[in-house]
Amino acid sequence: xxxxxxxxxxxxxxxxxxxxxxxxxxxxxxxxxxxxxxxxxxxxxxxxxxxxxxxxxxxxxxxxxxxxxxxxxxxxxxxxxxxxxxxxxxxxxxxxxxxxxxxxxxxxxxxxxxxxxxxxxxxxxxxxxxxxxxxxxxxxxxxxxxxxxxxxxxxxxxxxxxxxxxxxxxxxxxxxxxxxxxxxxxxxxxxxxxxxxxxxxxxxxxxxxxxxxxxxxxxxxxxxxxxxxxxxxxxxxxxxxxxxxxxxxxxx
Length: 252
Known about the structure:
The protein has helices at 71-80, 91-96, 98-106, 126-144, 160-168, 188-198, 216-229, 237-243; strands at residues 2-11, 18-20, 28-31, 36-40, 47-52, 57-64, 86-89, 110-113, 150-151, 172-173, 178-179, 204-208, 233-235, 245-251. It is of the alpha/beta class. It has one domain (53-239): TIM Barrel (Alpha-Beta Barrel).
């Protein structure tokens, strides 16, 4: 079991650095089907997972690590609905599908680093993690012409050591506050309900665009319409960080 510490902070100067600004009482919260335990803390690096805001603003995020059948239909939906999102790309996948990467960029979406290999970082030593992040950084920079500033480690797994490494490499780790569980393919209605019922101001929503997800492209337009109907606007993660007070997680 991995232990996650939660802290609220304010963004200062650069999007890639989240600094702690206040102290909170220790508490415990279980998330991700009890796979992660969340506590409050007073120091250490944090992972952004939610913006504390009174604005009805929300970020859709998509992880991609393999396949070429699901990304384009999802991009078509986002374009039709005039929604910008953040895509976390496995760089090994991006190398194999530069045309899809190009489409993501042309459509105005944000791209974050999802590592090069799609393997769990906590089991690796420091140098192997650094090498993987840097390799992903180089590939995505070469493909997009822009250095990514956001990192979502493969499988969303990280600890305090990985947070520290990412921080030294000028990355902000991005987690999520709403998990749609779309990778389980539970049915379109279930994905919609899971997302719309949980979504709130400042949330970062986790979705996938790899070939394993067979229902996300069908659920997505319904989710967007429901949230727009509730008055929500959509932003990239960087826009969410830049425009609001943030909530972040620290691993310990």
